[in-house]
Amino acid sequence: SSGINAEYGGFDQISVRDRVGLFFIMGGLYPFIVILDTIAKFNAEREIFYREMEDGLYTTGPYFFSKVLSTLPFHTIFLVLYTVPMYWLAGLQPTVSKFFGNCLYTYLAVYSSRCMAMAISAAVTNFQVAAFCANLLFTVFLLSSGFIINLESLWLGVKWLKWTSYLKWSFQALNQIEFHGLVFTCNSSMVAMYGECPISNGSVALKSYDLDGETLTECCAALIGIILLFLILSFLFLKFINQKPKK
C-alpha cells in the first residue's frame, strides 16, 4: 500500500505507517534470509576447510580473507536486485541522494547479518545449533530495532540491547532518509478529533517512533563497527576453535 499511497499523493496519516512498515521489511526480511543461507554454505565448506587445514595447505588468514572478499560481488549484485525495484515500486522520494542512501544502509544491514552468521558458524560447528543461535540473536536484534516495540517502551534492564542491534541502526537510518523533508496531511475529521494534525511532517513522525535520536553518520559508524566486530570474531573463532565437522 505504500507504493499506492506515494504514487497518488499519499502523504496522509496512513502513509506514515506504510513507510515505516516498508522499511521494516527492507531492513529485516532479506537480512534474515541471508543468515540461514550463510550458515548452510559455511557448514557445507567446513569439512573441506578442516581437511585442508590439517594437511597444511593454508592457514586461517588466507581462507578467511578469500571467503570475505569472494562474497562481496555476489552480495552487491543480489542487493541491487533486491533494493532497486523495491525502492521505485514503493514510490519513495525520487532523489538521487535518498535513493543511494537507502541502498547504502540496506547494504550495511544485510552485510551485518552475513557477518553475524559467519561468526556463529565459526563458533558453533553443528548446523542445527548454529541456526538456532543465529535465529535467537536475530530475534533479539529485531525486538530492539524500534518497529515491533517502541524503543522508549523497552524495559530498562534490556534497553541497552538497542545499541548492539544493527537492525535498529539500519531501520533508524532508512526512516530518517525518507522522512526528512516530508509534509503530511490530515482530513477535517482527524483535525476535529485531535485539535491538530497528529503527524504534520517527517520530523514529528520520526519522533513518534523514537527514531530521531542519532544522526545518519552515527548510524553508519555503528553499522561499520558492528560489521568489523563480527568479522574479527569470525577470524578468532576460525583460528582457535576446532572446526572438525560434527554430524
Structure, explained:
By secondary structure, the chain is mainly alpha-helical. 71% of the residues lie in helices and 0% in strands. Helix 2 packs across helix 4 (96-123), helix 4 runs parallel beside helix 9 and helix 6 (166-179) runs antiparallel to helix 8. The longest helix has 42 residues, at 13-54. The chain is elongated, with a radius of gyration of 21 Å.
Write the layout of secondary structure elements.
Elements: H1 2-7, H2 13-54, H3 60-89, H4 96-123, H5 127-143, H6 166-179, H7 188-194, H8 202-208, H9 216-240
Keywords:
single chain, mainly alpha, 247 residues
Helix content: over 70%
Category from helices, strands and their pairing: mainly alpha
- Rg from Cα: 21 Å
Classify the beta-strand content into a percent band: under 5%
With helices defined by DSSP (H or I, 4 residues minimum), what is the helix count?
Answer: 9
Which regions contain 5 or more consecutive residues with pLDDT less than 50? Answer: 1-9
Biggest sheet overview: none
Oligomer: single chain
Tell me, what's the shape?
A: elongated
Based on DSSP secondary structure assignment, what is the total number of beta strands? 0
Q: Mean pLDDT, as a whole number?
A: 88
- Spatial gap, N to C terminus: 46 Å
Summarize the model shown.
The chain has 247 residues and is an all-alpha fold. It has helices spanning 2-7, 13-54, 60-89, 96-123, 127-143, 166-179, 188-194, 202-208, 216-240. The N and C termini lie far apart (46 Å).
